[in-house]
Amino acid sequence: MMKIFDAHLDTFAHVAEVDPEGSRSVFMQQHYPNLLAGDTKVGVFVIYTEGDTVMAKYEQAIAIMEAMSREVQLHKDKLQLITTAQDLHDIEKNDKLGLILGIEGMQFLEINYDILFLMAQMGVRHGGLTWNEQNAFAAGAGIENDRGLTAAGKQLVADMESLHMIVDLAHANEQTFYDVADTATKPFIVSHSAAWSVYNHPRNLKDEQLRILAEAGGIIGLNAWRTFLADTNQSIDDFMRHLVYIADKIGVEHIGFGFDFCDYLYGDMVNGKPLTKDLKSSKDAPNVIPLLEAHGFSKTEIEKICYQNFADFFKAQLG
Ligand SMILES: [Zn+2]
Q1: 131 CA distance to ligand 1 middle (Å)
Q2: C-alpha separations of 215 from 139, 174, 181, 188 in Å
Q3: Transmembrane segments in this chain: where (predicted)?
Q4: How many whole angstroms from 167 Cα to the centroid of ligand 1?
Q5: CATH number of the domain that 226 lies in?
Q6: Which of 14, 125, 150, 279 could form a disulfide with 224 if both were Cys (CB 3.0 to 4.6 A apart)?
């Protein structure tokens, strides 16, 4: 079995949404078996917030934090919270699932900035500055490129670095990307995106961004979400086209997975269109391995892409 590191999972948004009373069954009964079946060893599980107001996002962030903390505390026999390099070394010797807790979209810090430190204390080690929107810190992928990182955003990046929280630019616009590249003193990641040159989508990285990411020692997690990969009839072959392109550009050392599986939110169809063929759910992750072999990647290279690149990165950055 080839272990998988998935750098982007929205699982707990689902857990908090369908399980507001805390019936304690959703994660272990619906999600955990899929993760296990797909050989997921470590995942970055994010606090994803949506809502019409920033206060609604703040309240959702707290609800998801509670759901995460509950599952981690109640299932220590099967789940391991990862906050240090040592935690990552430890779970490689057992059969637990490793959870790195992260944040997708930090706009809710506008309500209460210091909750950042509370979250760091509960074990959060990752954060994306924006989810496509303009906020007090940064401009997202949905915003024109004349805006980027703000002064408050520079402070946020500095605070995250001091807290060993990995900065994620998956949802940043280009200017924010370049501003963070200029500002950051530590490597950053793009956890769930693909290649602009293969398919033009504002969430995908241009060649220059890929080059800068690699130069900074960062990693891109390849996204399996259909609308990032191709126009129509998206399949695992489209996912592979992005992967092979990026490997040729910047080398296998800078590639991992951030599948962004959302089958549990939508079922098999989104807006009348099927999810990416053969890559819809955590249990499909091993489907990439024979394709990587067919493309001529060596066993060592496949191990790096599937797990080791992100594992080594987090070991180095978590301290
Ligand atoms: Zn996302």
Answers
A1: 7
A2: 23, 16, 10, 11
A3: none
A4: 14
A5: 3.20.20.140
A6: 279
